[in-house]
Amino acid sequence: MIKYLFAICFLFLLHNEEAELLWSESYKLTWQDFKGQPNLNTDAVAVTDSGITFSYSIKKTTSAVVSFKTIVKASFYPEHSWCKKDMVDNHVLSHEQLHFDITELYARYFREQISDLKVSNNITEILQDYHQSANANLEKMQQKYDEESNYSINKEGQLKWQNFIEKELKRLSKYKSKS
Predict the structure, then answer these.
(1) For 145-167, what is each residue's pLDDT tens digit?
(2) Burial letters for 92-119: b for 16+ Cβ neighbours within 10 Å, e otherwise?
(3) Strand partners, 71
(4) How far apart are CA 107 and CA 122, in angstroms?
(5) Closest CA to 98 of 52, 50, 154, 53
(6) Quick check: pTM over 0.85?
(7) What angle do CA 112, 114, 117 make, to 5 degrees?
């Protein structure tokens, strides 16, 4: 019985690891990472589902917050990301990678904000506000990127965004995701 329980736990852990990919400088998305069912009722040939995963812990005494720790991750969700395999190419893949890179950029902006915080009794509210703001700004930038690159069709617009994101990631390298 214990062997079966161990096997079930192992499969559960394995499945949870597959639920998200964490952004890494050394890993670029491949079409095999896009495991979701394609939406055949849209002109889109691929969709990247990524977001900022955030958690924190706070240490309190009876009257005050004395410290806090945070974890901020840029995550890609393979089961919710999809592509129409017969319609995609490397150019489209680089467009989708940049969506994930933008997620990492906003995770870095968020980490930078957190690094300036001082311990206070309202740290929970501040962290939650920062997280909401990071998500809202991330969503706006993702939309702007798609509009200005015309969903990868405008190659000049795509290149402009690639250069911008690359420079910003370098500028904020101090706050990059730990692999």
Answers:
(1) 999 999 999 999 999 999 999 99
(2) bbebbbbbbbbbbbbbbbbbebbeeeee
(3) 55
(4) 22
(5) 50
(6) yes
(7) 120
Domain boundaries, the chain: 20-175
Best CA proximity match to 52, nearest among 167, 143, 142: 142
The two structure tokens encoding residue 111: 């980490």
Instruction: With CA atoms as reference, report the closest residue to 153 among 97, 87, 71, 91.
Output: 91
Say if residue 76 is exposed, middle or buried (CB neighbours under 10 Å; 0-12, 13-18, 19+): buried
Q: How far apart are CA 27 and CA 62, in angstroms?
A: 45
Q: Which tokens sit at 168?
A: 């910003």
First vs last Cα of the chain: how many Å apart? 36
